[in-house]
């Protein structure tokens, strides 16, 4: 239908349209809804950035996602139906995550309601046909899928603790998923268009979210992105098959560990450290791996660049694994899990170092 050049131009155009739209829509929000998502002043002691800022960046993400979802049929009318059950499940689950995040930003909902909504998002994905296929036991695979979805929604929310960090990490994960697709798959895989569009939205949001930020993505953004990234992880990592189409469990586990190493490492580190101190892992604080990079002497933009560099390395490793490694061997598992282990140990070890004065 399209030549390779035409396809590249169409997808690049989609990316930049999403970028420009996000910049414009957030500019409008900044002008007319500058108090949305502001938290009470008491939370300043728990938040890295104590300044009150609006939290509506996620609204732009979701609008772009919906437009891209609808545009797929027009761009590629001869290919797969965008309204297949799995995609409708993604639409429903991400919509619920978005609405729950919107309610939380507006009214600061109770944690139990938030958890129930997150669990429902996972169940929607399962019912619509998106589930992790690793253990070969439907009940356990379903439970793992729900746990993965809830975990990712909370991990992205927890990672949204410093200007631009969650934005850059989410962009890197989506880019890794796209890097695993061949040129043909860019057309036939209905997910590719929304992913490219959301990447554009994240890039546009950086205009407002880069340090010193003028707005946050809020729970509206982190919960929507959490569902989307959970879906991406299931489709391209947990259920990844490589060039041969053969299911290889250690390839799947290795891809998950590499592509999602940053949210997994940060959440695991924070949870362990807080439990060891007798604190709840669900209460905010200035003890994330990003914060400890700052305590080590890095500025906020430098912290983002460190995370972005790790995300870029993960993206390259994922593309190599999915597009060039036909037979997965023990050596590949050791290399990929070794990379994930090095990153995890590095980030965890930072939390055990003596803190320095926070750089400006």
Q: How many angstroms does the end-to-end distance come to?
A: 53 Å
Helix content: 55-70%
Secondary-structure-derived class: mainly alpha
The overall number of domains is 1
Low-confidence stretches: 40-45
Main sheet specs: none
Multimerization state: single chain
Rg of Cα set: 20 Å
Instruction: Sketch the topology as an H/E string, one letter per element.
Output: HHHHHHHHHHHHHH
Number of helices: 14
Total beta-strand segments: 0
Q: Average pLDDT across residues? A: 88
Strand content: under 5%
**Coarse shape:** globular
Question: What is the secondary structure topology, with strand pairs?
Answer:
Blueprint: H1 4-32, H2 57-75, H3 85-107, H4 111-127, H5 138-159, H6 165-179, H7 183-188, H8 192-209, H9 218-238, H10 249-259, H11 261-276, H12 289-295, H13 300-323, H14 330-350
Helix pairs in contact: 1-2, 1-8, 2-3, 2-8, 2-9, 3-4, 3-9, 4-5, 5-9, 5-11, 6-8, 6-9, 6-13, 10-13, 10-14, 11-14, 12-13
Structural account:
The chain has one domain. With 360 residues, the protein is mostly helical. It is built from 14 helices and no strands. 69% of the residues lie in helices and 0% in strands. It is globular, with a radius of gyration of 20 Å. Mean pLDDT is 88; it is low at 40-45.
Task: Give a nutshell description of this structure.
By secondary structure, the chain is mainly α. Helices cover 69% and strands 0% of the residues.
List keywords for this structure.
360 residues, mainly alpha, 69% helix
